[in-house]
Amino acid sequence: MTSPLLQVSNLCWQVNNKAILSDINFTVTAGQFVGIIGCNGSGKTSLLRALYRYTKPTSGQILLAQQDIWRNSAASIARQVAVVTQAPSSLPYRVHEVVAMGLTPHKKLLEGENAQDKQRIDDALSQVDLSQFAHHSFDTLSGGEQQRVLIARAIVQQGQLLIMDEPTNHLDVHYQIDILKRVKQLNTTVIASLHDLNIASAFCDHLILLDNGKIIAHGTPQQVLTEPLISQVYRVELSVTKHPIHGKPHLLFHYQGNSCQK
Amino acid sequence: MSKISLVTLALIVTTLVSVIIALCFGAVSISPTQVLDILLPWLNQQNPNPVYSQIVLELRLPRVLLAILCGAGLAVAGAMLQQVTRNPLADPYLFGISAGASFGAVAMFTLFSSLSILLLPLAAFAGGLLAVLVVISIAGRSAFNQIERMLLAGVASSFMFSAGSSAMLYHSDPQAAASILFWTLGSFSQAQWSSLPAPAIIISGSILLFFAFSRQVLAISSGDESATTLGVKVGKVRLLMLIASSLICAIIVASAGGIAFVGLLIPHVVRLTLGQRQLNNFIVVALFGGIFMIYVDLMARTLLENQEIPLGIITSAIGSVFFLFILKQRNQRIN
Q1: How many domains does one find in chain B?
Q2: ipTM for the assembly
């Protein structure tokens, strides 16, 4: 049996004695597409930040390829984990310059870009169909295109794990599907936080449902997207059906009930 | 040849031409051919006029070189600080360096006036570094992850040192106050060959350091979290860059006084004319700063006959007008 790519055990994170994440345990095997779902404030972003070594947890351990991420340097983790955060509102650079930033953890001080690096940047841009925008300013692109630029940056970064924080936020349905399709085609291991449960169901192999910083359920979409679980966590009324095409759960919300308020 | 290599080449040529022009003018006008004869004696059979030779080589050339060094140093320090703080208003003097250096100089002037000529640059340098230490200790080590705290600590320490200088000046005699005022506004009149090596070493060393970290700095300029995910130790890099910029400013204040506005102006000129990305091209930024300062100094010593105008007055006056002009051009291009 192959060992998991990522292993999270007993992860806790407290700020001012308030538990943001408590006792998180899960594993991710290579090639999986893992979705993290939960209400606003349930700890999705905090969990992802702990995974990509931005915040240090209060206790617990995160092993990436059997190695504790806090025993390795930031640069060595950045060579293995690429991150696409929610697109910044403004980056005053050209598209190819933003993509080239993916080389940062691979370069020594004073080391320039060689022909191979330039090729890698061109390839990444053509992979996200943005070659013709290489010399455009990042700020002039639409939200969906900006997100694709950041994915190209992650491709250049060459990690074995891609972490995405709400990659489909603010995008119309075309770009939501477009972005996740492209990510799926990369054939890499992905952990993404998602708001749209039907999108999560369609794209993810494995879902982790968070509530108040705890894992309430994890497993396949069929195991997690059930009427009792989702209605309890999100405080909505719903019916779960089977999607006529991909056969995974599809949620139909009843719009008379209470919403996700606490 | 890429566009930016052409721009760099053009800037280098402009710098050389500007040096020749600056060497021609002053109390005595010397023709460009005579200047070239003096600078490149091996190309010429006849001996140049020894008095002119003395003026060009011993008075004007060190002065012009100091102007280039100071312009370049202030410009790269400003460009660096604007990037690592992501604040377009960041200026080398924002962190209290200028106020600290003035404090050191004023203290030397008023407390040990007999030693002042010799030890003034040293006192200014020490004062500048003291200000940086104060900022670092007020802000605390973790503050380099929080830009606002760092900037506020800089502003606070700046006012603290200004208060100290004002108190000492208030109790000193008017003549000392006048010479201190002239000094704080900046001047290259003290330039000699012997005063060049220290700024040259610190400024070129810092530019090399900035180049070494340019990839990290570019990542930081696009956001702390994003930079962290690219493997950059944001707090440490930012602290290192702040210290290097402070060293540059402290040595400049020590050699030429407080020259205002250049560290803010030149990075914006580069940003508006060549794009934000070139802010990270420290050679281009340095050349822009150097050329600007050559002409500022030329004006300082030629505009009024037999009298020097403090540099700070010219940089602020020209700088602000030029700045508004570029902003206006920029607005018209967008609309």
Answers
A1: 1
A2: 0.88
